[in-house]
Amino acid sequence: MAGPEAAIRIETLSKVYSGGKLALDAVSFDVPRGQIFGLLGPNGAGKSTLINILAGLVTKTSGKAVIWGFDIDEHPRNSKRSIGVVPQEIIFDPFFTPRETLEIQAGLYGIAPSQRRSDELLAAMHLSDKANAYARTLSGGMKRRLLVAKAMVHSPPILVLDEPTAGVDVELRRQLWDYVRSLNRQGVTVVLTTHYLEEAEELCDRIAIINHGKVIANEPTRDLVAKAQEKAVVVTIDRDLDAVPTNTCFDNIVLIDERTLEITYQKDKVNAGQVLGALTADGLGIVDVSTRDPDLEDVFLSLVAEG
């Protein structure tokens, strides 16, 4: 992640809105080229402010942002040309057709008619059959796909997706991620904000977490998930229980039904064998065992709670 290799470099970036609200507080991180990079955080953490600064829609208060080697202040045209942003809100003119929407957007970027990719992008987004329909007649999912196509008309090396699957059905979400992965395989760097933590865990190579305008984590996804120390084991025993057994190696124990216990424990202090051994030492016979591994949600919640 050395200097010129970063797709996006953010250095001590701050934003104070009029009225004194501090949205970003000296945020610094790099987005490595060629990765799918997750930007996570609770509502109001500063994610959209950061994206809007990169898109040129919000003016930063201080700090520096460099997109594909172009400083957003010194080279605003080149930096904007290097990034495509899919906003959270579905915004476009309802009286243009999808093809017209893409043609107009390409014209704004100065792309010659012979070099435009409108039909190719519509096909990639499964919108070819709607190319000449009024945009206002499209479903919510189709409108969101059209926004993705619109962000890609100038073939930017970086695509930013701000909550792209909010309110989208499961099938469309899968289609969208297949397309994002194919773009990434072609070399496009993807920055993703999402509230669906399982989505981030599945897709992202690296994740930064923002809370109250500060970066509280920035690590490879695998390393971040490994930070979750709490594991759970569900144990079925051979007889009905009136009360739950106790042991110092249990973090928490819950009686799910008369014969089923869910026990959480800290994996850096004890292992599943010790947990099960504590039960058998109490004279309980174990009939069945299943475990639940920690996930990104566990890490996210613990980091945000600390923050």
From TrEMBL:
**Which Pfam families does the annotation name?**
ABC_tran
Question: Under the GO molecular function aspect, what terms does this record hold?
Answer: ATP binding
What Gene3D superfamilies does this protein map onto? P-loop containing nucleotide triphosphate hydrolases
Q: Which spans of this chain does the record mark as coiled coil?
A: none
| Keyword Cell membrane appears in the UniProt entry | no
Q: Which UniProt keywords apply?
A: ATP-binding, Nucleotide-binding, Transport
What PROSITE patterns does the annotation carry? ABC_TRANSPORTER_1, ABC_TRANSPORTER_2
Q: Which residues form the ABC transporter domain?
A: 8-237
What SUPFAM superfamilies does the entry give? P-loop containing nucleoside triphosphate hydrolases
Q: Which PANTHER family match?
A: ABC TRANSPORTER ATP-BINDING PROTEIN (PTHR42711), ABC-TYPE MULTIDRUG TRANSPORT SYSTEM, ATPASE COMPONENT (PTHR42711:SF15)
Protein name as catalogued: ABC transporter ATP-binding protein
Q: Which organism is it from?
A: Sphingomonas anseongensis
